[in-house]
């Protein structure tokens, strides 16, 4: 038995308007052109009252050098050279528009390593970085990307934010570490090429929302880039997932984009409902965990 339906009344915590960009992969021609497109989406969402905007994983790959011109590793290193300017511009727009931007993920040089890194940029100039922990075999073999070793929740006025980049969401212990730190909103920038890969990420994201009593925001890319190594056509359907209990949506999907169409989503996240669910829900995953039998331990930084 999974518990009877209970009435969950919100506690006095803020509502957060979240925006998600479903990104079209296309040839932009220059960093400035790609940036103008990203800023257009951010401004549109800000005009609609968004306090948080999520971009997808590796949204800068249209700037990747053509296949055969240099090695795939060198191409990704050159793409990483574009990252500081992109982060600076997005950070400036976060300040100008007074919102939080989770800038998808971007390649980042760290000494001799290449990391896949999500930047969380705040309205007061805050800048936090969450590296992807679990890189896919393709990322490592093609581009030489390695996984990070830090994971933490970012405490903000709009709630406690966590980021798991694409493949990371398929590892439930990573989300559980963030849940143990009180995560409210889990952002999942993703990049999936075929429907099977997308469904792995989508279904795991939905499960993490239920297991950890939090909102999960999933952002992805669509489209096709010809002439780049390791880049296929993209499949996605961005969404906002919730716990499965009254008064959340019956299917635990608060908002969902059309599949494979460039667009944005807006959704209002009531953090008070999370608090009430954790205390008085029909089931209480956080409270009812058998900690005497099961535990997740974090050994990273």
Blueprint (SSEs and pairs):
Blueprint: E1 15-25, H1 31-47, E2 52-54, H2 72-80, H3 83-97, E3 100-102, E4 106-110, E5 113-121, E6 127-131, H4 137-143, E7 154-156, E8 159-163, H5 172-180, E9 185-189, H6 195-212, E10 215-219, E11 221-223, E12 239-241, E13 253-256, E14 263-270, H7 271-280, H8 285-288
How much of the polypeptide forms β-strand, as a percent range? 15-25%
Sheet with the most strands, sense and barrel status = 8 strands, mixed
Unreliable stretches, pLDDT < 50, 5 or more residues?
Answer: none
Q: What is the radius of gyration? A: 19 Å
Please write the CATH class name. Alpha Beta
| CATH architecture tag | 4-Layer Sandwich
Query: How many domain regions?
Result: 1
Report what the structure shows.
The protein is of the alpha/beta class and 301 residues long. It has one domain: 4-Layer Sandwich (Nitrilase/N-carbamoyl-D-aminoacid amidohydrolase), CATH 3.60.110.10. 30% of the residues lie in helices and 24% in strands. The chain is built from eight helices and 14 strands. Strands 1, 2, 3, 4, 5, 6, 11 and 14 form an eight-stranded mixed sheet that branches. A six-stranded mixed sheet has the order 7-8-9-10-12-13, covered by helices on one side. β4 and β5 form a beta hairpin. α1 runs parallel beside α3 and α5 runs parallel beside α6. The longest helix has 18 residues. The chain is globular and about 60 Å long.
Defining key terms:
301 residues; alpha/beta; Nitrilase/N-carbamoyl-D-aminoacid amidohydrolase; eight-stranded mixed sheet; six-stranded mixed sheet; 24% strand; globular
